[in-house]
Amino acid sequence: MASHTDSTDPAALPTPATQAGRDGLDALLAHPGKALIGLDFDGTLAPIVADPEQARAHPDAVPTLAALAPKVAAVAVVTGRPPGVAVRHGGFAGVPGLEHLVVLGHYGAERWDAVSGSVTAPAPHPGVAAARAELPGLLDRVGAWQGTWIEEKGRAVAVHTRRASDPQAAFEALREPLTDLATRHGLVVEPGRMVLELRPPGMDKGVALLEYAREIGARSVLYAGDDLGDLAAFTAVDKLRASGTPGVLVCSGSEEVTELRDRADLVVDGPSGVVRLLRALAERLP
Questions:
Q1: DSSP assignment of 116-157
Q2: Helices (H), 155-269
Q3: Bridge partners, 195 (sequence order)
Q4: How far apart are CA 188 and CA 192, in angstroms?
Q5: pLDDT tens-digit readout, 173-201
Q6: 281 within 8 A of 13, measured Cβ to Cβ
């Protein structure tokens, strides 16, 4: 699918390359008080870094969201991270103007609400702890990929290969054994940009976005993401479109995930491009 990149004018609102995207943007502009803005965190609001613990939101993200959020129904940050981590790394807590912001963490299994500052969550899946205990031995058996490391995510556990001596080879070598491990413990594997995450089934960014859009009665949806996990959210927007709710699909530009670029109505230049798009929306809306 064709897509449109950022305008050279940073204040301009870019035009989606597809009719569906243009319809979605028109609906958002016509009734902003019924619009849902959905945003991935890593790679969309925050630049990708080698160590996820060092990821921080783009410096202009929070002031831009604070300007935009009061003008729409809600802003939802949809992430695989625990919501508390996304809130801390994003700097979302206690910011005037972000009262309409929620973080749907662990693919929607946990929610942080800016109004209350509290997190709601169900009991953790026992398979995560069981799989985590087996991971060090599995990595040793597969091979000593220097730089491969395990990220503890509470309700999920991830194996990163970006810092390995050969990141893609490590990623491919681990995909099958990690899938077998996940299956034995009732989990699924979510591949990403040089990361394989083991998490409980039944929740993904698409489910989280769709349920929240229906909960708030959204009449239009814009979703921006950068990774394979965001494909489910793109599919959710397609479902909403099919049922009469217009939407816009935005790719936070990445050469690593061409599937997302190909499906997007609009491609922007990474987190800085996402921020420019959100700022242009905030300036355009009454």
A1: T--EE--PPPHHHHHHHHHHHHHHHHH---TT-EEEE-SS-E
A2: 167-184, 205-216, 231-242, 258-263
A3: 160, 192
A4: 13
A5: 999 999 999 999 999 998 988 999 998 88
A6: yes
